[in-house]
Amino acid sequence: MRNPQPWIRLNEGAQKAAADALLLCGQTTLRRLSARMDRETAQAVFKASGLG
Fold it and tell me: In terms of pTM, does the model score above 0.70?
């Protein structure tokens, strides 16, 4: 991801909304998207460092 800041803000907001019971739908999708973003970021870091 070239600009992670929007994702970070979205993720933080979604987590707060879920904790406050304000996020009524989309939690599963957001968790899956978050896991995918984390996985892709880790793969990019490993690749860039020559470990992957």
Answer: no
